[in-house]
Amino acid sequence: MRCVVENEGVRVDVTDQWLVQLRKGVVELLILRLLVLRDELHGYAIVKELESRGRFVAGESTVYPVLKRLEADGLLTTRWVESSAGPPRKYYRVSGTGAAFLAEAGDEWDALVAAMSALKGAEDDE
Fold this sequence. Notes:
The longest helix is centred in the last third of the chain and has 30 residues. Helices cover about 60% and strands about 20% of the residues. It has about 130 residues and is α+β, with helices and mostly antiparallel strands. The protein has one domain: Orthogonal Bundle (Arc Repressor Mutant, subunit A), CATH 1.10.10. The strands form 2 sheets. Strands 3-5-4 form a 3-stranded antiparallel β-sheet. Helix 1 crosses helix 3 and helix 2 packs across helix 3. The mean pLDDT is about 90. Strand 4 and strand 5 form a beta hairpin.
């Protein structure tokens, strides 16, 4: 069920807007966690791995800009690998800085999930 409101004569899908913002905030963490689990992947493999884990992550148009930003921020290292089936592929790996960021951000994520669970539990108790 979608939450749609009318704001100054314009219908706005509030659920869709919220999901867009939520994705922006967590796709970085999903990519970093995936790369910790897999050690190293090329961009398209990252897209496919994330897509296989549910509908939450959008496709290439979301993942590639995030990969570029994570690399620019020093959270990922990259290397090019020749491919026998086409052009070279860029492989991504979590840097030391990226691992430290993921640990800290993971703690924040856990605290958020705990707070949401506690509130939901309180709601169920009423």
